[in-house]
Specification:
By secondary structure, the protein is of the alpha/beta class. The protein has one domain: TIM Barrel, CATH 3.20.20. It is built from 13 helices and 12 strands. The strands form 2 sheets. It has an 8-stranded parallel β-barrel, surrounded by 8 helices. It has a two-stranded antiparallel sheet with strand order 5-6. Helix 3 links the parallel strand 3 and strand 4. The longest helix is centred in the middle third of the chain and has 20 residues. It is globular, with a radius of gyration of 20 Å. The two termini are about 15 Å apart.
């Protein structure tokens, strides 16, 4: 039996992750995300993760024109939950590590040690540039900044006073108290070999996507291969999956067809344009995934898993086992009814296919 963690990628941006006028028009409100997180906790999910996004893509759907700030919303969700992990996201380009070190300690206290941190070394020039905070660094430079950023944050979590004279940050007798009870889990979605090597050295886990089943497995195994070369046997990989369930495979596909009938081409064009502005686009694996989605006019990830709970469980189990994943993070069209389907029916199917989750154990008295 393969054991994995199970998490939900919260819809902190309006419309969730489907760029369409005919998909569920999810509100970017704290109340909705609170309901989703409490539901996930009740079903035994291990963590809820919020993205960080500063600029939407417009179009008729106003895709992501309204987004909740990640760290503040996770602070609130930490207070209203008691077991589930609450993971926030920060861009290393725009937040000083000393500021985040202090914020992490606060949310760690509120949550009782349940906070986790997702760090983003890149994004795109429009998203951060609108605030004048984009730094014109090449691919290597972004990870050099992120590595120094993590180093400073970790020192502030463990040392009483920090002096640091680096390329990007200078700290003089810097104090940061209180300390978190323990260093939070840190994940990163860098998918190039440089990104993986950064993540393996500085983080506890990698956040993975794939363009299809084989790409998912290949990417996950590459991360494990690089981790083994670095001697990081406990390095974790978390797959991010867009999932569209239906009572049958046919009904699930009909949902996808309906969402694609209302695909917001204008928003996708804006998304493509913004990511294409990156001068290091060739090395930016994540940006190229967003561009590919826009060019194909898909309302959602082309790697979306579509079908009945049994079909979804079988396909997920296949990727988890063959890709040696440690975690599953889910995106769904409707984060109440669809999340219930994942948390109950798909979790049961995963168990039947040899993939154990804490959600299954939680629901069966384990």
């Amino acid at each position: 039996m393969t054991s994995v963690e199970l998490g939900v990628f919260l819809p902190v941006g309006n419309g969730g992750w489907i760029t369409s006028t005919t998909s569920p028009q999810l509100p970017a409100t704290y109340a909705y995300n609170k309901s989703v997180t409490i539901l996930a906790e009740e079903m035994g999910f291990d963590f809820a993760l919020a993205m960080a996004k500063w600029r939407g893509y417009g179009g008729p759907s106003q895709h992501w024109d309204f987004t909740l700030e990640s760290m503040s919303i996770m602070s609130g969700l930490a207070e209203c939950t008691s077991r589930i992990g609450v993971w926030g996201t920060v861009h290393t380009m725009i937040f000083h590590p000393a500021v985040i070190a202090k914020m992490v300690a606060g949310i760690d206290e509120i949550s009782g040690g349940r906070f986790g941190l997702n760090i983003v070394a890149g994004s795109n020039p429009a998203d951060l540039g609108q605030m004048g905070l984009w730094q014109d660094l090449d691919h290597e430079g972004r990870y050099a900044l992120a590595e120094e950023w993590v180093t400073v944050a970790k020192r502030l979590w463990t040392e009483e006073r920090v002096d640091h004279d680096g390329r990007f940050y200078k700290l003089t007798d810097c104090m940061s108290n209180p300390k978190p009870k323990k260093a939070p889990p840190i994940i990163c979605a860098g998918a190039s070999d440089r990104g993986f090597r950064f993540t393996i050295k500085n983080c506890t886990g990698s956040f993975l996507l794939g363009s299809n089943r084989d790409d998912f497995v290949k990417t996950a195994l590459r991360a494990k291969e690089l981790a083994a070369e670095a001697g990081s046997d406990d390095f974790k990989t978390y797959g991010l999956f867009t999932i569209v369930p239906g009572a049958t495979d046919k009904q699930a596909q009909e949902r996808v067809d309906y969402y694609n009938s209302g695909v917001d081409a204008e928003a996708l064009d804006n998304q493509t344009r913004e990511y294409s502005m990156d001068p290091s686009l060739k090395q930016n694996t994540m940006a190229n995934r967003f561009i590919a989605q826009g060019e194909s006019r898909n309302s959602m990830s082309p790697a979306a898993i579509i079908g009945s709970p049994e079909t979804i469980a079988r396909k997920l189990a296949d990727i988890v086992i063959n890709g040696k994943l440690n975690g599953i993070t889910v995106i769904v069209p409707d984060f109440i009814d669809d999340l219930k389907t994942i948390g109950i029916d798909v979790v049961q199917g995963l168990h039947d296919h040899g993939v154990q989750t804490n959600a299954y154990a939680h629901q069966h008295g384990g």
